[in-house]
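sorry to bug you again but im stuck and you know this stuff better than me. what follows is a protein written twice so to speak, once as letters and once as structure tokens for the fold. mainly i need to know what kind of three dimensional shape the backbone takes. anything you notice is useful, everything is just below:
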Amino acid sequence: MSETIRTRTYEWVDPLETAEKGKTMSGYDFLNGILKGEIPPPPIAATLDFHPLSLEEGKVIFEFEPREFHYNPIGGVHGGVISTVLDTVMGCALQSKLPQGVAYTTLELKINFIKAVTYKSGKMKAEGRLIHLGKSTALIEADLKDEKGKLYAHGVSTCLILNI
């Protein structure tokens, strides 16, 4: 069996430097800086090749285009990739509402995989929406849809609010 080798190269900026900068700003301003290209995105965005499209307080939309390097051994995008994209938009939706000096961490993540994602799915949008922001926890949801609006995955997350 002949194997065709493919390569992929990408770059990133030191994420710890970026995180330190983020501590000096509100969550919205930090995310807006990433969206505008003024602040480098985290390495995971380059690793999985997704990026933000829009930002509102409590709502974010990222673009994701399935590629071969996202595939699992059975010929589709790995569920962990989809989970990471949805976890990212849910976290960013929450972060967009947090003031300076407040952070979060995921306590619980649940993803429903509705339809298999492949490179034939085309460009997709992941939208995260903040449902509830309390003093110690937050509830967020997200969808992954194709350009026609067909749902491929849905997620919900509970996050712990942290004073840093």
About this structure: The first strand starts at residue 50 and ends at 56. The chain is about 25% helix and 35% strand. The chain has one domain: 15-163. The CA atoms of residues 83 and 163 lie 26 Å apart.
